[in-house]
Amino acid sequence: MSLNSTPSSERVHIGFFGLRNAGKSSLVNAVTGQNLSVVSDVKGTTTDPVKKAMELLPIGPVVIIDTPGFDDEGGLGELRVMKTKEVLSKTDIAVLVTESEELNLTEKELINFFKEKKLPYILVRNKADLKKYKASGADNEITVSALTGENIYELKQLIAGLAKAQQSTKPIVSDLISTGDRVILVVPIDKAAPKGRLILPQQMTIRDILDCGAVAVTCRDSELTDTLACLREAPSMVITDSQAFGKVSKLVPEDIPLTSFSILMARYKGELTELVKGAAVLSSLRNGDKVLISEGCTHHRQCNDIGTVKMPVWIESFSGAKPEFSFTSGGEFPENLTEYKLVIHCGGCMLNEKEMKSRTERCISQNVPIVNYGVAIAHMNGILKRSLEVFPDVLKTLE
Fold it and tell me: Which domains does the chain have, with CATH numbers?
């Protein structure tokens, strides 16, 4: 995968925060070398987060996010601050821009939040062409001028150092297979499947298999039996789209490891154990229980959409109950989840690891169980244990 085609979810997200008129937008433009943000002397010019996926040397593929001032006022100002807080949940590296020698309470609040969330940050004292700052000596502080370009290169070097530590080297499936292994990937093609391409988890899994010298054999569920018969030796693993879990599990012999793209992605983003715990709640749902079904991407709803149509039907059939379903998509995810008995999330392939962890941690902190599509579907088909056999440590949570 080239740098230019790196998906947003795999890019380091760099957020620029601070007070109104601290020069955040000017600094974003200076760092990127582009006029991404509107610059003005008027306070509150940036009214919504401005997000741009790009290649930024010497860092590589990143998402740059310029945010409204954290001290915005009034009814609209509160909404803008709320949007800025949402950005914090997906930020890998924070850049706090100030034009003051001494930070005020709002800026200190932001730094405390960074520390609380263990979010790497850089304190940038801007407008060095107009002010003289005392050198602090701190490794994560720098004085710059967005206007003259003073220390902009050095700032990018600081960001690059933090970004290198943030870039994931975790495998998706390559640690479970060996060079020369055959892995069958079951990819159903239905009305919701994007024309002319595979969805992101499928692309990432194929690439990870190829990178370790194994062979990826891809077929639809309707050709799975013939594909198994064509191989001289049994495959080392079968990985399926979650929607075909039930059908595929009946076709794949018990001695062949079986899991799903969604389960692999949950492990990749570090949330699999917690999601497996949440699956048990599906068996105890009652009439009227509130269930939130949330998707990380926004797409045109099909007549047989998995989130809004298929999942509710499967849950009602499995539980024998009539829960009350709510739905969110994209960046929308409630702050207060306490009214829900269970949160069911998509695989999160369009969300970066930071945002997926933030959503999961929000559920945990409010004692609301969470499960994703793949784990839920495996549980409802009675094959969750089998789908986790390749992850012995996670499998223990079912004992």
Answer: 3-166 (3.40.50.300), 174-265 (3.40.50.11420), 271-384 (3.40.50.11410)
